[in-house]
Every structure is written in C-alpha cells, then in structure tokens.
Design brief:
By secondary structure, this protein is an all-alpha fold. 83% of the residues lie in helices and 0% in strands. The chain has two helices and no strands. Helix 1 packs antiparallel against helix 2. The longest helix is centred in the N-terminal third of the chain and has 37 residues.
C-alpha cells in the first residue's frame, strides 16, 4: 500500500478519535450541569439538556463506530 495513503488513513483515524473524545467530554459536562439543575429545582432545563445530551451521545456513537475495534 502506498505510504502516503497509510499516513492519510492514520491521520484521519486520529482526528476521528479526538472528535469522539471531545463529544464524550461535552456529554460528561452536560450530565454534571443537569445534576446541578436538578439540585436547584429546574426540571425544564434538565429536560431540554437531556434531549441535547441524547443527540450528542448518538453523535459520539456514530463517530466512534468509524474507529477500528481495540483488542
């Protein structure tokens, strides 16, 4: 296989992995924010953020599905 192609694939996989990590970080931050909102009695904001967090979770799964399986 051409070395340039291998290098390009490796860089793409690295980018995909970083994007997945960033999405996972956003999800964790959203979950912390939701816990704070619940403590402060703001169920409407919790509901709205829950919907967005589900969308981000789905995006994370889609991004990570393009990574090779780790053994």
């Amino acid at each position: 296989m051409n070395l340039r192609i291998v290098d390009a694939v490796q860089r793409a996989l690295t980018h995909i992995e970083v994007i997945g990590q960033r999405l996972a970080f956003v999800t964790s931050q959203a979950l912390q924010a939701m816990a704070n909102m619940e403590e402060n009695g703001d169920p409407i904001s919790v509901d709205l953020l829950t919907a967005k967090t589900r969308e981000i979770d789905k995006l994370t799964w889609l991004v990570e599905s393009h990574l090779p399986q780790k053994k």
